[in-house]
Design a protein that fits this description.
Shape: globular
Strand content: 15-25%
Largest sheet: 3 strands, parallel
Distance between the termini: 41 Å
Length: 118
């Protein structure tokens, strides 16, 4: 990739590897397909890799991002659903399963073209 790993931050390295793997390009393509509703539930490294794609979600798409407080700035202008350790611990589950629970709750609130704002 032509990077001097000693001269870049960890975040810059994650973003560069993400670009090399095609993560932002693939995410941009998927999110730009004219969906009415989008839920982004990615870990911090994938949010870093896809940050530029998250800003390209069309304004017509109602979009939510499930992310930790520390990753809030990475999700751009999305409705933010905070990922809280206390919640994960309360359910005694993994982050992946908790993301699935959040997605299910969001899907249950979707009613045709109407969506209750969270």
């Amino acid at each position: 990739m032509g990077l001097d790993v000693d001269s870049v931050t960890n975040d810059e390295l994650v973003e560069a590897v993400g670009r090399e793997k095609g993560i932002p390009q693939g995410l941009r393509g998927s999110l730009g397909e004219g969906y009415d509703l989008a839920l982004v539930a990615l870990g911090t490294k994938y949010l870093l890799s896809g940050r530029e794609a998250l800003t390209s979600i069309p304004n017509e798409t109602t979009s939510f991002a499930y992310a930790s407080k520390g990753s809030r700035e990475l999700v751009g202008d999305r409705h933010w659903i905070p990922a809280i350790e206390a919640e994960r611990s309360q359910f005694g589950t993994t982050w992946l399963k908790l993301r699935g629970r959040e997605f299910r709750a969001l899907a249950k609130n979707a009613n045709g073209d109407e969506l209750e704002r969270m």
